[in-house]
Amino acid sequence: MFSNPNLIDIHATVAVPTPKSWQGQISAAEVQVLPLRDRTRTGVPGWCTVGVGLEESPDVEVMCGGINSKQPQHAALWRQGHLLHFGFEESPALLNAPGRALLENSICYAARFTEDRPIVVTQSSFTNKTYPRSQRALRLALDQPTATAKSLAVSFGGPIRSTLEAMSSEPARQWIRENLGFLVADERGMLVVDEDLKRLGVALDAPEFPARALASATAGSEPALALLARRVPEGPGASAALAVWRDFLAAKGAFLFFSETAGFVWRLDPLAAKRGIPSAELRGSRRASPTLEPTTRPSREQALRPRSGR
User: Fold this and answer.
1) SS percent in the chain: helix, strand, coil, step 5
2) pTM score, whole prediction
3) Among 63, 83, 144, 266, which residue has the fewest nearby CB atoms (within 10 Å)?
4) Where are the domains of the chain?
5) Is the peptide bond before 5 cis (omega within 30 degrees of 0)?
6) In the prediction, which pLDDT does 301 show?
7) What sections of 143-277 are H helices per DSSP?
């Protein structure tokens, strides 16, 4: 991304004041950034995307963030499947030489992913109030010294919320840490404990979850099989026999990945299945089409041509 077709000096940075919204996570008074413009900021702000949870999806690759009014983890330049998000505010005419080089490199890079497609479609917190609350964001909140039981409880639903609000800070933190791996989103998007998962005794995002659930079902646990069907929606389904689930996981288990943004479920990675490479290994530039070299520069017509839909 930063080397082809243009070599960008990523060390040519300048110090800028740490954004106020970052100061809970970054104690330094200044951060180093690579300027993408030479003039004073004008026009409307650019767009950044919540970074927490993006990294769990194999079809997503985050290249860099940028100065923003959100959090340090928010992504400014990232890819999902064959789609590119270049969120910096300036038009190409207002970018400096490194900025224009980065835009061109980004287009050339995204053009290499002719087989990859977005997998996870997420709800927006701006338009849908039932979007799944983030367990990963809750982990970050737990690390903030200023977090209170009441502020941590806002992500929870049902009786858990009122119980946490009635606690002091440290007992609330302890309870959340003990139950983090068993938290899922309910129909309203609020975090609750999946009791079947807690009885199984393995975190939902743990790599061994599918195998542990299958082993428990093999031992005669009907809730374990129902849990497996609920958390692996692309599997053979709740009515499928145990042997069918065993065959499915033997054939497709390596191509599954966990996603909380998709609703706290394990999804199937189609590209990994197509290539026969475990999804955990097929990340980043490895998802590009093997026939396209990193230095391939698409023609202007190739770069602008829609590759799916309209």
Assistant:
1) 35, 10, 50
2) 0.84
3) 144
4) 14-119, 135-193, 196-268
5) yes
6) 47
7) 149-153, 158-165, 169-179, 195-200, 209-218, 222-231, 242-252, 270-275
